[in-house]
Amino acid sequence: MKKDQKIIHPKGCPHQLRAIKDTMELLSGKWKFQIIGTLILSGATRFMELKRALDGIAPKKLSKDLQELEINQLITRTVKDTKPITVEYAITEHGRTLDKLINEITEWGLTHRKEIIK
Amino acid sequence: MKKDQKIIHPKGCPHQLRAIKDTMELLSGKWKFQIIGTLILSGATRFMELKRALDGIAPKKLSKDLQELEINQLITRTVKDTKPITVEYAITEHGRTLDKLINEITEWGLTHRKEIIK
DNA sequence: CAGGATCCTTTACGATACTG
DNA sequence: CAGTATCGTAAAGGATCCTG
After folding, report:
1. B47 CB and strand C closer than 7 A
2. B36 within some domain
3. Residue pLDDT, tens place only, B4-47
């Protein structure tokens, strides 16, 4: 990069930064990506199954994150009319647009772990 | 997906979930990805420039996040021997492995914004 | 300029118990 | 089973002032 070339975007990256901010405001935190990752990998999943898959999450936290993801159209919540009622969570079409992002996060996690082990 | 197919990974996704966890443990939060994004977009950048680019960040927070990123080999911190000393932060080679991830985050932020405006 | 010190508010997250 | 209620701790984040 040439010196002062950064002047080219004196206010030039804000939309990109805003986009990053948008994403992270919604998906930052310890569990959200793991939840979505699980739903993508395993398909529709019940509350307790999720709780088991996401080792260590408290039911309150799981419930809260699921609500936020549902509100933001990333997952659906379906009450099944079974004997003891069950509830299934599944990824939406819009949620599927996170496929590539989740992949990158996963890949990078593996990359980074190899790097720091060195 | 076939019924019960999820049995195929009863404990089959943990490494993927662990990878997601690794990534997010390090990079979750409001500012980290924005900081890295800025350094990737703008090249080496001084503390105050970063502060200006990251609209609204408190110096204390910026300082803390920069330290964490440096400790994790994602950025470098270089003190320049100028009249009032200046400090430049830059992305490392390892930090560059975040390129694609940052791109996806940015892209998805744009996608999502369009979606919710509907 | 770079960033530490101080103080404060707000989320995040967790453990456990409990209910329809 | 699927959560909610309650309680508590820790971390995140912010505002402001200060210093070499």
Report:
1. yes
2. yes
3. 333 334 445 678 999 999 999 999 999 999 999 999 999 999 99
A8 located within any domain = no
Q: What is the pLDDT of residues B67-99, one digit of tens each?
A: 999 999 999 999 999 988 999 999 999 999 999
- Name which of A97, A32, A20, A21 is nearest A64 in CA terms: A32
The answer to the question of residue B77 being in a domain is: yes
What's the pTM? 0.89
- What CATH number corresponds to the domain at position A68? 1.10.10.10
Domain that holds residue B44: 14-117
B55 at interface of A, judged by CB pairs closer than 8 A: yes
Assess whether B48 (CB) lies less than 7 A from strand C.
Answer: yes
Strand D nucleotides, any atom under 7 Å to a protein CB: 1-6, 12-17, 20
Q: Which of B115, B109, B17, B14 is nearest to A36 (CA)?
A: B17
Count how many domains chain B has: 1
Cα atoms found within 13 Å of the Cα of residue B51, Cβ hemisphere only:
12
Give domain status of residue A2, yes or no. no
